[in-house]
Amino acid sequence: MLFTLTLILTLAAFAADWIHLRHQRRRGTPALRSFIIWILATDALPLISAIVGWISRDNGPGLMNLYMWLFWAWIVTVLPRLLYYVFHFFRLPRTGLLLAAAFTLFLLWGTTFGRTRIHVNRIEICSDRIPAAFDGFRIVQFSDAHVGALVRPERELTRLTDTINALRPDAVFFTGDLVNIRSAELDDRTMALLQRIETPVWSVTGNHDVGTYIRDSVRYPAAVEARKVVERQREMGWCVLEDTTVYLRRGADSLALTGISFDPALRERRHDRHLPADNLPTVYAGVPDSLYNITLVHVPQLWEQITALGYGDLTLSGHVHAMQMKIRPWGRGWSPAVWLYERWSGRYDNGRHTLYINDGTGYVAYPMRLGAWPEVTLFTLKRCE
């Protein structure tokens, strides 16, 4: 989807530039040659990225960061120009120039404060199925850290762990995509920063954790990389749930916590509105449906299948990031994610079942968040008679 959208916007940019240049040539605008050079250089950024990717044998963190910043440079230089063209067409060049400048500043703000300032969302979950001992139980969810893509890992992960610790949760749940491409991103420094979380952490794997994006699969087999990501989380003291259920206990009461791993076979379908889930009956085999069940699953598209089996009183997911772009004039707001996903951000309720999609804290494709701010979610369980 991102590649298709980029291609469409790139072609639209070339077309808009060509129309604008023809108009300016008739007017004999000064410094037109410099403007043409600027246009060609910025419009060519996606092409440069594609050529670099084509000649590269692998796609390690350095190359992925280059892709990310090339795409960012294209967004910041081309999109405000297209906005200006619209107003110039209606003979409002000064208005267009002002709005293009303001849009550029907004993009730069999204690259700095918008990318790094963590927002804490507080959600209350009420159910008569919540055991009495868990009334008031506090859960923190975070997701989609993509540590290999972070611009300043030490600063950003320190801010993340400090935010989590300040909330004093009883449990912390991570819902996938800890790394961006490969296990080496979880180096000693990164692991030490994540180990600063003071509360026990339970996690599941996401589509970026299972090695399927690695190009040099001979040197870095996907299955080996996926196993290393899990092992390094366990070295940090995290409990990685791989299609299994554990029971959280308080006194004589307990609730079931189920974790569903990302299936590598779903890589090409990860953005589909509906996904196959033939293994779910096996995942929940032996789990009493009388217990309140919390399910961690990276992709939210499995929610309907989970609830159809009678589980997932509370299902926590990530994956979407709201495409790191959200307009928030009301409630959930709007995001390009609606073109792909039926459910893409925040809370969804269906009877006794609740799905929550966390917008994540990291970023992919471009180092920017516009409206879809980095999120840590605090859930408080309430027993309601």
Verbal overview:
The chain has a six-stranded mixed beta sheet, with helices on one face. The chain contains eleven helices and twelve strands. Helix 7 packs parallel to helix 8. The protein has two domains: 110 residues, no CATH class; 265 residues, Purple Acid Phosphatase, chain A, domain 2 (4-Layer Sandwich). The protein is α/β, with parallel strands linked by helices and 385 residues long.
Number of helices: 11
Average predicted confidence as pLDDT:
93
What is the fold-level CATH name, i.e. the topology of the largest domain?
Answer: Purple Acid Phosphatase, chain A, domain 2
Q: Could you name the CATH homologous superfamily of the largest domain?
A: Metallo-dependent phosphatases
Number of DSSP strands? 12
How much is the radius of gyration in Å? 23 Å
Strand and helix order: HHHHHHEEHEHEHEEEHEHEEEE
Strand-pairing-aware structural class = alpha/beta
Q: What fraction strand?
A: 15-25%
